[in-house]
Specification:
The protein is mostly helical. Helices cover 69% and strands 1% of the residues. The chain has one domain: Four Helix Bundle (Hemerythrin (Met), subunit A).
Length: 406
Amino acid sequence: MQTLYKRLLQYKYIPEQCENQLKSYKYNGIDNSILYNYIFGPLAEQFLRPNTVKKKIQIYNIKIQKITLIGFICVMIPHLLILWIAPGDESKDIPKWLIIFTGIMHLVYMNFDNMDGKQARKTGNSSPLGLLIDHGCDALIVTIQGMSLSACVGFGNSYLMYSLNLCGSVPFFITTLDEYYTDIMYLPLINGAAEGCFSIGVVYLFTAYMGNEYWLKDSIWGLKNNSITVIGFYAASVFATLNILYRIYQVKGFETLKKLIKNTSQFFFIHFTITYIFAFSPSNVSLQQTRILTYISALCWCRVVVINKQKKKFKKFIFKIVNNIIVSRNTVYGNIFGKCLVCEATLLYIVFIVCLLCNIKNQQIIYINIFKAYAHLVYNGTNQLCDILKIKVFRVKQKILENKKY
């Protein structure tokens, strides 16, 4: 048992042949966002600029990873409160105070997300570790924030909740591939990282002002207001995705675009299998375990981000496991013969947890164990990166650049 525990803690996600690429990796990004360049960027700089009050705090000694994790906590706290209030029923009314709190904390997270990169450049502490943690948190937040927003606008346990996650995850994934193939993280005038995130905060505060019931009122074409909102998010997502694909075609040509599309096949296949379960599950497991299905897609990001930083070829990783368990062998069997071979809900838990020794009806326990699987990668991957790069996670190199614009 001790040997197994030791192997788990020492497991390496990054192969030795990729260590040199990590050491030489340098982030290259262009952000043309209107909101970022004229509002959010200057605001983040103001928070990092020393003044008579902050001199006592020594703002320049704050480690970049601490800033990133504080921002992540700002999103997780409201999400956990929503999970506590409505552990299994996304249609339950969320209190107005919690909606306001979630919206404010989301905007605070945005500021921390902008601060960490500026702090890294200011102190000369930029590294693949900081970028890995930053983008890894952002990837997870795409799903977490989508689920929190779904609860606040009354989507309930339905495909609307999962589809809102798709609106953010697809452009995020394509942007990651854009950087993978072009070596530049390019963000246009209007993008999801700035304008998209800000719109989420606006929806929270608007919901608090109008009340949850506003989203359940009938709108045009016989649809409710929340459905119209999802359509709007879908339109923005499709536009952003096509814009990124067109840019890759312009920069790298058609052959690179074909490789990119090929490498998205497993990502979209995961979403296809989950969509299939929503549509054809014999036991309607999607209406009982909507959060679990949504968490499945979220945990794919950790592999994508690590691959991007290693600059190595795409491999199947967790995608293969998810496909083999969820795909037709169980759900399709149930469609044909009227009953699945194995309880669908149980299979969803097995995807995340190899040995689950708790009551599967206790949903809070399940959610905690799901994040343990992600935490294992975060812990081991972070330690391995620190060893490769010869740096500490929460310690700043004493390289403070005075009077430097950043």
